[in-house]
Amino acid sequence: MDKTFVLKGKIEREWVLVDANEQTLGRLATQIAHILMGKHKPTFTPGVMMGDSVIVINAGFIKVTGNRLTEKFYYAHSGFPGGLKSVSLKDQLKNHPDRVIRHAVWGMIPHNKMGRELIKKIKVYAGSEHPHQAQTPTVVE
Question: What SS3 state is found at 62?
Answer without folding.
Answer: coil
